[in-house]
Structure formats: structure tokens, C-alpha cells
Amino acid sequence: MSSVRRPLKSLGQNFLVDNNIIHKIILSAAIKPDDCVLEIGPGRGALTEYLAGKAGRLVLIEYDHALAAALQERYADDPRVTVVDADILAVDLAEVLKEGSSWKVVANLPYNISTAVLFRLLEVRDRLARMILMLQKEVGDRLVAAPDCADYGVTTVLLGLWIDMRREFIVPPG
């Protein structure tokens, strides 16, 4: 897979390149050999490489057709990995997650769709055991805001009804 491909701003892409951050995310996800993992927006596959080596089943949902094709080629010989070339906001998540009863979600979400993705994931919350999501700091601030904070709002309350949210760490700019 080409490592020189630039992120497409139209898709809100921001590829992970820092191995320290990748390892922190993988450790936070606590993947075990029998885990089913959904990775949303794998991009060039920086997290995917580690997830594929740890998870019993891995489903990748990638909206960028060129990146999805490259991932399909890369994991063609690995029956544990499935690549779904689709928009996470349009895909039938219940169908994607039908095999396995307890999924972990790992994602580096674009700012412009992060809240919409969270609400989509709520639709299948009964199948999810854990979500490790990399979000823009402002979105994270809003999600973990205390009731007396200016960032506290409807999104905080609605998601907080169903999800126990906490910040694991902050990724510095760049």
C-alpha cells in the first residue's frame, strides 16, 4: 500500500503515522485472540496491521475506494479479515456485526462525521463490548464534559445515557 498517498480533505482523512500513538491505541483496545474487532476508516492500515495480528476476527470499513481495494489485496489471504468498501454512515452495521456477539470498535474518526458515527454505533450497542475512538480534541471535550462545563450539551447527555466515556490520552497536534 502506498505510504505516499496524501489524505483527502474531502473525506476528512488524517492518517496515523506515529507508532507511539498507534501502540497506545492498541493497548487501550486490549485486543485478545478471540476478539471480534471492527475498525472504522483504516486508511493505509497503520492500526490494521496490529489489529490483524491480535484479533480473531477483523472487519474493516473503508469509504475511500482506492484504500479499500489496497486493503482487500493486502489481506486477501487472511480469512480472519474482511474489508467492507462502504460509508460507515450508510452500511448496515447489524449485518456487518452479525457474526460474534461482542465486538470491539477501533477508529480514528474524521471530525465532520464523528458524532454521526457515534449515534450509528448506538444502534448496535448490544453487540459492542468496547470502543476506542480517536476523535478531535474538541469532540472529546464535549463527550466527557461535566454538567457544569460549557462543553456539556445534548450530545454529552444522549451518548452518556448508553456509553461510559472517558479520555485515555490526548494526541498532540501533528
Q: Beta-strand level of the residues, as a percent range?
A: 15-25%
- In DSSP terms (H or I, runs of 4 or more residues), the helix count works out at 7
Please give the radius of gyration in angstroms. Answer: 16 Å
Largest beta sheet: what is the strand line-up?
3-2-1-4-5
Number of strands: 5
The level of helicity is: 25-40%
Structure description:
The protein has a 5-stranded parallel sheet with strand order 3-2-1-4-5, with helices on one face. 34% of the residues lie in helices and 17% in strands. The protein is globular and about 50 Å long. Helix 1 packs parallel to helix 2 (46-54). It has 7 helices and 5 strands, in the order H-E-H-E-H-E-H-E-H-E-H-H. Helix 5 (114-122) links the parallel strand 4 and strand 5 (128-134). It is α/β, with parallel strands linked by helices and 174 residues long.
Question: What are the SSEs and their pairings?
Answer:
Layout: H1 19-29, E1 36-40, H2 46-54, E2 57-62, H3 65-74, E3 81-85, H4 93-96, E4 103-108, H5 114-122, E5 128-134, H6 137-143, H7 154-162
Parallel strand pairs: 1-2, 1-4, 2-3, 4-5
